[in-house]
Design goal:
homodimer, Methyltransferase, Methionine Synthase (B12-binding Domains), Chain A, domain 1, Rossmann fold, five-stranded parallel sheet, two-stranded antiparallel ribbon, 14 helices, 7 strands, globular, DNA-binding, repressor (chains A, B), DNA-binding (chains A, B), MerR family transcriptional regulator (chains A, B)
Chain lengths: 334, 334
DNA sequence: TGGTTTGTTTGTCATGGACAAAACAGAACG
DNA sequence: CGTTCTGTTTTGTCCATGACAAACAAACCA
């Protein structure tokens, strides 16, 4: 008994897909897709299936594909492409590390059933909407592995697996949402049990405006707090200028940002550079998340600008690397 | 030593103010404000002060003022206007209840120092960036008052007070962020300590795409969970269609949505109506938050459509009313 | 093989016109 | 005096088209 899925206006599609109005109109003009119907006033009405397709395409673009190549592809092939993982075409390979979460590197193949049994089990519970079972499974894993390993070996890969399952159409958005909420709750919970406050680097964690995903941030916070660092979480969407103010006010040693793969790619490097310029030189800038690699250009810019290498910007391609960075920081200072 | 605050592009302004590109251009055309400079390519560059003004104006509009009246007003008067609170002009009064948080009604004047001492103290700590003190104050209040009263009497009014202080320029965005994070942590923490699961209504909590504020949702969740209700939190930004799926999958009795004052007003009623139409009739729809009043039109529409009163849509103008709604629901059923 | 140059692709911005829904103001009416 | 009903203004959003710079791919040369 499927509801008849009504058509969407252009602004609704913008919300649901993350593709701007201008982009949607440009694609229509150039590629002939999407090809929305029109209402009485001549305004676009996008059929639901086209919106689904747009969502999928958006996700593929975030992985390094390009629109021109995708619009012509048949739906089936598109799904298959999505299942395969990150695009391997040309230079886009630079994005690979950024998209895959840390520990996944060990698992050669994301979609074969070679996943860790724990992750398999969690996925099953998610699909079955069995909240209690999911909670129990995760809680058990947390207790068995400890926070550190749990974050690195379980949460990371599981999040990737969920994302990939979504791409394959095996998991609905709301299931992903629910999973995310559960993990957040769990991490916050164990976080609040930590001794808290005190030691060495004071880390300010946040995302820039337009970036809503804070799960990665929370994972890093868990790891750092576990090592005794003092974390100051600002939540999502802190304007650049306020980050500078906050860093000053809280005497932060490090500002940690997270960029997801869906963050507008073009803006990453400029924004990071700008922020770098605004912060006091002794404050380090750590960049993580699926879109972190895109900040490479900013590192280069900062390097030339300061006549020194990678001056104060550090890209964290994995969760492990956050811990390494922490070690480095500590050994470099008192 | 203020940094020279660079100019912003139109998309940056859109992000920072919440005003759409089209709107920004339309205002410029019609009112002559903002009046951005242009770069070499003819693209708009907004000076920082104009962006500040835009932010303020946006907030005033969310409170019921109208752009045409505001653009001409001097900056000082604007701030004064902001400090005074909600617009009292004409019919806009209907918005009053929606913007003010529950318990504030008792406090006749938000800006006079007539605030509860507890709230005064918390505000002081926020302004001083004294995280430990803030945590301690809040924790103490939580323990003394219990979750229920803490949420209704402290968190609600305090959040309003923080918002108003921001309007008066007494509090920075990042301070508001930090405060919000702290409260969220606290609530989640006490939430995780609740027996959990089980009793009567199964409530699905989320916001629609474009609505990021989940604090209100968390407050309601705390209250409902305290009364034994089963809460299923989906976090923010669940697409309409997925809400329907989730409601089915989790056999929800109630779907609770939250709209902040900054949610695009025009969309509230249509969206709520649409969702109402998609959900099974026996599932109730509860609407809360600063922008909830705007859903009144949807209630009316649902009423005429169903030839029955307020069919299945309930607007919660305050936190208390959530508890009342719960009672009503329970006494109406088994 | 590695670096540079030359087309292409692609997102975003600008202009100017249009329109419908909402907000308002004022008249008419009970 | 308060309410309901109009006509008018305000306001956000949409449309079409054109333009351009940055990112990319591919051909090219050393």
């Amino acid at each position: 008994m499927n509801a008849p899925r009504p058509h969407l206006s252009i602004s609704a599609v913008e919300r649901d897909t993350g593709l701007g109005k201008d982009t949607l109109r440009a694609w229509e003009r150039r590629y002939g897709f999407p090809s929305p119907a029109r209402d009485d006033c001549g305004e676009r009405l996008y059929p639901a299936e086209q919106v689904d397709r747009l969502r999928l395409i958006k996700r593929l673009i975030d992985q390094g594909h390009r629109p021109g190549r995708l619009v012509g592809v048949a739906d089936a092939d598109l799904v298959q492409l999505a299942a395969r993982g990150t695009a391997a075409t040309g230079t886009a390979a630079s994005c690979v590390e950024g998209c895959a979460a840390p520990a996944t590197a060990g698992l050669s193949d994301g979609q074969a059933s070679g996943l860790a049994p724990l992750i398999e089990r969690a996925l099953t519970h998610i699909r079955a909407h069995d909240l209690p079972a999911l909670q129990q499974t995760l809680n058990q894993a947390l207790l068995r592995q400890g926070v550190g390993r749990f974050v690195i070996d379980t949460v990371g890969p599981l999040s990737v697996a969920v994302g990939e399952a979504w791409m394959r159409g095996e998991i609905e958005v709301f299931e992903e949402h629910l999973y995310t909420e559960q993990i957040k709750t769990l991490l916050r919970q164990s976080l609040s049990a930590l001794p808290g406050m005190g030691a060495a680097p004071r880390v300010l964690l946040t995302t820039l405006p337009d970036e809503l995903h804070t799960l990665g941030l929370l994972m890093v916070q868990s790891l750092l707090a576990l090592e005794g660092a003092t974390c100051i979480p600002l939540g999502a969407q802190t304007p650049l200028f306020d980050i500078r103010l906050a860093a000053q006010a809280h005497a932060a040693d490090i500002v940690a940002l997270s960029f997801s793969a869906s963050f507008p790619s073009r803006q990453v490097a400029p924004l990071v550079s700008q922020l770098r310029g605004m912060l006091p030189p002794h404050v380090e800038l750590w960049i993580g998340g699926g879109g972190a690699e895109r900040a490479r250009a900013a590192v280069a810019a900062a390097a030339t600008g300061n006549a020194s290498d990678g001056q104060g910007i550090r890209i964290l391609p994995s969760l492990d690397s956050a811990l390494q960075a922490l070690e480095v920081w500590r050994s470099a200072r008192g």
